[in-house]
Specification:
Length: 214
């Protein structure tokens, strides 16, 4: 059974959802903190005095890269069997880059210290920062777990003789190790019983004929 194919689409769906949330939150943070506009809270308007955080730009870039890659990969995989975008090697390389980006986004967001200012708390930035941190971690964890699962099963298939596993479609790949449709046979044999030794009958030379006496 292709366990990688079973978890593949749920992971992709979760990535799209988390990316949309991070994109919306970071986009709102950039729009609120960017420039020198005034922010009104309960009828009182004052300059926010909060600089645009760097993690917001990184979060937007990571979310956009995820959306423009995962969605086309899913659509092409459904419409066309064996597309190059679904190759095991392609997914391992690209998703490695993506989970590194999500890890960097999570680390940069978690290290943010701008929430110590009263202005940031007043416009609700801190709650959004914590939400970005949480969903960035979830996106990284889901993508990293899928990447490790795909890597482990690919090496298992390769070790069993399937040298073409790297250019196989992840959705239809046979990770059991059967290459080119050739089944893998069980090469272990039961221990052989020692053969019973048959004792050859002892043959005696013919005795001489009767002795004739005169």
């Amino acid at each position: 059974m292709n366990y990688v194919g079973l978890v593949r689409y749920p992971v992709f769906g979760a990535l799209v959802l988390f990316s949309l949330i991070v994109l919306g939150l970071d986009g709102h943070i950039i729009s609120v903190t960017g420039g020198s506009h005034e922010v009104c809270i309960e009828g009182f308007c004052a300059n926010a005095g909060v600089s645009t955080p760097s993690f917001a730009g990184l979060g937007v870039a990571t979310a956009v890269l995820t959306l423009v890659s995962v969605i086309p990969i899913t659509i092409i995989d459904v419409l066309r069997k064996g597309a190059i975008t679904s190759f095991v090697a392609v997914e391992l390389g690209w998703f490695f880059f993506l989970w590194v980006m999500w890890l960097a986004t999570f680390g940069d967001t978690a290290g943010n210290t701008g929430c110590n200012s009263s202005a940031a708390n007043g416009i609700g930035i801190c709650s959004q920062v914590r939400a970005v941190e949480a969903f960035s971690f979830l996106a990284w964890f889901a993508l990293f777990a899928y990447w490790v699962l795909l890597l482990v099963f690919s090496f298992i298939a390769f070790s069993k003789g399937d040298t073409k596993i790297w250019v196989a479609s992840t959705r239809d790949a046979d990770f059991s190790g059967a290459a080119d449709g050739i089944p893998v046979y069980n090469t272990s044999y039961p221990p052989q019983q020692p053969m019973a030794q048959h004792q050859q009958p002892v043959q005696y030379p013919p005795t001489g004929g009767p002795v004739m006496t005169a």
